[in-house]
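ok trying this again, last paste got cut off
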Amino acid sequence: MLDVSTLWSLQGQLLLLIAAGALVRRLKLIDEEGQAALTNVVLYVTLPCSILLSFMMEVDHSLLSHLLIVFLLSAGVQVFSFTLSKLHYRNVEESKRNVLRYGLLVSNAGFMGLPIAGLLFGQLGYIYASIYLIPQRVVMWSAGLALFGDRNQSFGVRMKQVAVHPCMIAVYLGFLLMFTSLALPSFVTKTLASLGNSTTALSMLLIGSLLAEPGQNPFHADRSLLHFTVLRLLVIPVASFLICRMIGIDPVITGAGVILAAMPGGSTTVILASKYGSDTAYASKLVVFSTLLSLLSIPLWGMVL
């Protein structure tokens, strides 16, 4: 059974980092130019390093069939989430609509999901979670990034920009390293780790600073945000759970897949909203609000699984 205190400690860390970002903004240690610079550092430096690191794993051939099932399950969740994102929020203003749709596509499975899967299912949980994240990494920097593109540009131009984005280049290199088993020099790996491991802290600081903008009420949640949270924390994992049970998928694979599908909105929602001119304050609320409610929902999932 999931150690609830460990989970709350992990989520508490996120919330404290957000609070630190808000304090930094209130003390005027960072301004709008600083926020823009921080966004660029995360988007073009630390995130690509983090993504590349996530692909650097040894694939256990004895588990290959199980890993394939995990991969297909994750891909199915992404298709389901993409369908939900297309069906909902048509009557919401565009700056918020892009945020809500991206939030459905991309969860915080990278930071929160990996350790929680490990707590629940041991070493297998870590392995399955690493494979589960691959389709999400691809979607978040392809279809997800395209949501924030300039709508005045042609589809081809926007897709070209997505294809050459540093985070997508990190995905290409990651697949190359994973399938060829190429080993990078240790000093390169350590440099990537130093940069990539700072992504979560920098992202949360940015979220906090955006929440502390003058005139913002960080605790106000409108109907669309409540609706998003129900879809993100309940509908998507319930659908995953029911499909896995109907097909008869291995219980450990089912458990890892469902708990990863139940993660709150990802911090990259705020990063991309800030970079591409969407509603950053709303994106920050989405991450904070869904993370707060996940303090209740994820322990419940842990008990069910």
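PB: full thing came through this time. The first helix runs from residue 4 to 26.
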